Amino acid sequence: MRLWQNPASPFARKVRIVARETGLLPRIEEIAVMVSPVSPNADLAAHNPLVKIPALQMDDGKVIYDSTVICEYLDTLHTGVQVIPSDATRWEALRLQALCNGILEAAVLCRYEGFVRPEAYRWDGWVKGQFAKIRNGLDALASEAPAWGARFGIGQIGAACVLGYLDYRFANENWRSRAALASWYETVKDRASVVATMPA
Ligand SMILES: N[C@@H](CCC(=O)N[C@@H](CS)C(=O)NCC(=O)O)C(=O)O
User: How far is CA 184 from CA 152, 156, 178, 190, in A?
Assistant: First the structure.
């Protein structure tokens, strides 16, 4: 399989952590590409009309996206502990993944606003609205984290990607003021899959 990704992408990181947690990494070639809404990658564009990462080419040549679909697919390819449960806890896990994806979407939009959009077109009110989503989402994660225990399923993987991305791109955002979230992150930040995919 081939995975279009970039080490800076938190959505791709989610897939890369799942690949490592499930032992599937040896079957996946990770291809690093640069993407942005204003400079699409030609190779990726030929396989994903949205020109977004992550995208995965399966062994039969077909390509799937986005991170949620790829994680779900990878979870069918191994016999270890499921990252996405199929029992009654499934919906809770998928909701938590959606919460983390929503925080990441807001954070990536803020990154593009500050990095890609020309200064003359930037809009503070819009960025504030995105940051409200990020902070409300972090409050929700902090209230849920004490119940996670040692579980490191798709929701917790998403949470690790959220916190890692904030450290990487928004280091001034003091998310560690939420003590429950900070102490939970301490329990996962040294996992091999998390360390190996940490954005440099
Ligand atoms: N919902 C998608 C989001 C993917 C996404 O937004 N990826 C960003 C990189 S972090 C991207 O490819 N951006 C390029 C673009 O928007 O054109 C997922 O979960 O995979």
Answer: 11, 10, 10, 12
Residues of the chain where predicted confidence (pLDDT) is lower than 70: none
At 40 the pLDDT is: 86
Whether residue 68 is found in the same domain as residue 94? no
Task: Examine the domain organization and report whether 39 and 109 are in the same domain.
Answer: no
CATH label of the domain that carries residue 43: 3.40.30.10
Q: What is the pTM of this model?
A: 0.97
pLDDT in tens, 72-118: 999 999 999 999 999 999 999 999 999 999 999 999 999 999 989 99
Residue among 9, 14, 52, 105 whose CB has most ligand 1 atoms within 8 A, to mutate: 52
**Ligand 1 mean position, distance from CA 66 (Å):** 8
Question: How confident is the model at residue 160, as a pLDDT?
Answer: 98
DSSP code for 147: G
The verdict on the CB of residue 158 being under 6 Å from ligand 1 is no
Q: Is 56 in the pocket of ligand 1 (CB under 6 A)?
A: no
Query: Is 42 found in the same domain as 126?
Result: no
